[in-house]
Amino acid sequence: MGKLVLAVLFVALGLAGVSSASAGQEKDVLATSQGDLEIAFLGHASLILAFGGKTIHVDPYGDVADYGALPKADLVLVTHEHFDHLDPKAFGAILKPGTAVVGSKACAGKLPAGAVLLANGESRTVLGLPIEAVPAYNIAHKRPDGQPFHPKGAGNGYVVTFGDKRVYIAGDTENTPEMKSLEGIDVAFLPMNLPYTMTPEQVADAARAFRPKILYPYHFGDTDTGRLVKLLAGEKGIEVRVRKLN
């Protein structure tokens, strides 16, 4: 779906656009103990979540949508400072008075005054939502100069609790020990964008370790999602859902 068409859908439907967008804009609705959690898949690593009357943007990136026409954010989650996760123009377009922002320490200076900056391992409740910062970093995948694409300590994944459901949005990371030790994850978004994050084999390895009930590969670029589906085909209790991400 083109940016203009997507923008018109969201303008016409407001927050309901998260649950009603179709014709190329995929969405899922998950039941929780405190009402439905609605997920719209914009593209790349960008998501919109709707829960309890609140709109939550994740890693805004203007190449996947016209952010000026999307619902304004009650909360923005930023995993790290890279331009395709923290696009200043897209980010600015969804702010409104009172928007809460949560980012990693590496985002300092790029987020508004009052933003909550979480170090790896820290937790905070924001707008009534418990948020845990999980380390997001590379182990094996490195730049030509030998430095990791994402050094340890710079980026976060987030576990956000919606009612009785724990949702893990991993950010840019590999299958780290911290990821593999997570418990009680109902929904996981795991990146598969080579060479910067994980291979399908690494995603499968992580999933077998912490066993999310629903696994969405995201931020996968040209990586073959079918490979992941095959790798986890025999794993009971893990449902792999592949959604369109431009």
Protein described:
The chain is an alpha/beta fold and 246 residues long. It has a single domain, classed as Metallo-beta-lactamase, Chain A (4-Layer Sandwich). Helices cover 18% and strands 30% of the residues. It contains six helices and 14 strands. The protein has helices spanning 3-13, 16-20, 88-93, 177-180, 200-210, 225-231; strands at 27-32, 35-43, 46-51, 54-58, 75-78, 100-104, 116-118, 123-126, 129-136, 155-162, 165-169, 187-191, 214-218, 239-240. The protein has a seven-stranded mixed beta sheet with strand order 1-2-3-4-5-6-7. The protein has a seven-stranded mixed beta sheet with strand order 8-9-10-11-12-13-14. Strand 11 (165-169), helix 4 (177-180) and strand 12 form a beta-alpha-beta unit. Helix 5 crosses helix 6 (225-231). Mean pLDDT is 88; it is low at 1-17 and 19-24.
Secondary structure topology:
Blueprint: H1 3-13, H2 16-20, E1 27-32, E2 35-43, E3 46-51, E4 54-58, E5 75-78, H3 88-93, E6 100-104, E7 116-118, E8 123-126, E9 129-136, E10 155-162, E11 165-169, H4 177-180, E12 187-191, H5 200-210, E13 214-218, H6 225-231, E14 239-240
Parallel strand pairs: 4-5, 5-6, 6-7, 11-12, 12-13, 13-14
Antiparallel strand pairs: 1-2, 2-3, 3-4, 8-9, 9-10, 10-11
